[in-house]
Amino acid sequence: MKRMMIWTLAVLCVLAGCARGGMGKAGTTVAPTSTALACEVTLLLPNAMLDGLQEETVTLLKAYEEVDAKDLVGALAENGAIPEGSEALTFQADGVHGVIDLNRAFGDGVATSGTAGETMMLASLVNTLSAFYELQDVLVTSEGKAIQTGNNIYDEPLAP
What we know:
about 160 residues; alpha+beta; five-stranded mixed beta sheet; two-stranded antiparallel ribbon; 7 strands; about 35% helix; globular
């Protein structure tokens, strides 16, 4: 009886080792594939009436500590809050003030969106960045220059 149990345990151990797939060809170890880390961030998006912002939580496929302004701008563009193709070129923040320079797609999109559109796009961007980085204001530029529309020249920091 003891021999039968020992043989059964030995066979089970061998089978368990094979099922894990621990060693690959030529004695190399096969590492398990890791899944991407994900985190949730809050975006401030224009509401349906375009007269205010609403919070929306989205999932980004990276660790929270690695989220940067480029990720936030990408998420805003994916959710239709800012023009498609918008990208952050640079972003700096000192804990109080932020400065973001975006590409031409953003500047052109804001300039051609009309009063309500430009207001909502800038509000969504500034409020999202201000909330994420805990800033009092953000200066927004496009290709290093102030954004000019038919309604305004945005050459000063905007507060949330």
